[in-house]
From TrEMBL:
Boundaries of every Cytochrome c domain copy: 44-147, 189-298, 323-413
Binding-site positions, heme c 1: C58, C61, H62
InterPro entries: Cyt_c-like_dom (IPR009056), Cyt_c-like_dom_sf (IPR036909), Cytochrome_c-type_DH (IPR051459), Membr-bd_ADH_cyt_c (IPR014353)
Stored Pfam families: Cytochrom_C (PF00034), Cytochrome_CBB3 (PF13442)
Listed name of the protein: Mono/diheme cytochrome c family protein
Subcellular location(s) per record: Cell membrane
Main subcellular location: membrane
Gene source species: Pigmentiphaga kullae
Cofactor field: heme c
Gene Ontology MF annotations: electron transfer activity; heme binding; iron ion binding; oxidoreductase activity, acting on CH-OH group of donors
UniProt: heme c 2 binding residues: C204, C207, H208
Amino acid sequence: MSRAAKWSLTIVILLAVVVAGIALFAHEPEIPTASIDPKQFPEEQVRRGQEVASASMCVVCHTAPGGAVNAGGFHMETPFGVIVSTNITPDTESGIGAWSFEAFERAMRRGVARDGTHLYPAFPYTSFTKMSDEDMRSLYAYMMSQPPVRNEPQATRLPFPFNQRALMAGWNLLFLDRDPVAKVASESEAWNRGQYLAVALGHCSACHTPRNALGAEKTGKDYLGGGEAEGWIAPALNGSSKAPIPWTEQALFDYLRAGYSDQHGAAGASMTPVVRVGTSQIAESDTRALATYIASQMAGAGQGKTGPTPPQREAAAQAAVATTDTLGARIYANACAACHHPGPGGPDLFGAQPPLWLATSLNLDQPDNVIRYVLNGTQHDAGNPRGGHMPGYAYALNDAQVTAVVQFMRESFTGQPAWTDVQDAVRRIRGEYPLALQGRGE
Ligand code: HEC
Ligand code: HEC
Ligand code: HEC
């Protein structure tokens, strides 16, 4: 073990001991089971609750691949181990069917389950704690009115010390900010609505903000400064955005509503379900409000940068593809240009022709997202007719070939310095896949 690793382990253990002390004094009582009649909730309240659930994207985390909606069993990779989501259908045995509103609200606002055990903040109660009382009651009415599904997902087992759930009482003392979202009087109604949707419901910062060593979101200038989700980089949505063309309110609206912006490309990876079940399903005025708020956070990014326009970028890409004669350029021409064809007259295959010369992923400091796109492809779109599918190249291309095509795109489609150590990153990312999907490697 390196010195640095020993130090961080010592610090984590010390912190754990301190926090355990605090936790001993922070015992949470069990809340008795209740019998809930879903017919008690007015239809209008249930309908509003459905909108809150969409904006908060509960189904994304609480539905296992191929499993019943909200019946749990989705595996979340975190730096502390795999955390399995629970069944939040109103089944009385395996779900939350016997939870009173009081128990539900405590879980949502303070991260404590009905039986008094602490929940991990992989469940974004850190955002939901800021939900308005009215939205919380509507959400409860909606959840309790859904069909109950009997399903007992596998239990979460993190390694010591993280398996000591009581430690989360200390974590909450340190990091849980329960203040409601503060209205900003100088901003418009739409901006304030967008702020509330982004912070309290949509938990955009859960993925788009970097976290500290104990897994809490950083604040201040790091807010929306770029984070991580399932191994993918969730790009910065603040002034440090690397998007080659600055995002506008309209472009954000297109991307969040339809999963695609002409100026930026498609929503991929874990942003796809955010659009599919969240931002495309809420009221259109709410998607606009989100766009207004996020655009204001991004103000300043790329400003004063009089970079090439989208047509100029496309023309440069076209020239590079036509004239470069490297391994990477040849792979691009043969394997990729059919869909990513720069210049006029390119095919509109499968309804999409994603403009890589406008993609943020190629402009980030690390090549991870681009490598993941090339190895995995994308098999799902955000539900929009212009989205499309991309085959994965894990089998067709070996590490050196993936490296070559990634370097070619970086050099030819962006004004950014070349990435170093791409081949190491390709090897590392391939190694993370299950054996059957690792492909060719060397
Ligand atoms: C980012 C992923 C994520 C989202 C989004 C999410 N949850 Fe969860 N939720 C989890 C995980 C993971 C757990 C289990 C945490 C644990 O075991 O400590 C959980 C636990 C819960 C629990 C505690 C259940 C129990 O049996 O202990 C409730 C209640 C809950 N979520 C409700 C919701 C609702 C309602 C929404 C939408 C408004 C929602 N969650 C959105 C990940 C998520
Ligand atoms: C579960 C994690 C997750 C959540 C939650 C999430 N995002 Fe994302 N987001 C991502 C990832 C990963 C990408 C990169 C996608 C890609 O490369 O195709 C992304 C990309 C984006 C982009 C494109 C940025 C660029 O420069 O290309 C925008 C805009 C965006 N998200 C907005 C939002 C908003 C607004 C919310 C909240 C409503 C949100 N995201 C919630 C993971 C997330
Ligand atoms: C069959 C058509 C097709 C082929 C062939 C194809 N792609 Fe794609 N590619 C797509 C589509 C569609 C998307 C957008 C998908 C999404 O994000 O939902 C995409 C997205 C991407 C992205 C992400 C862009 C962004 O917005 O961040 C990269 C990088 C990429 N492709 C590179 C390649 C490379 C390199 C090759 C060749 C080795 C290739 N593609 C071959 C269809 C294709």
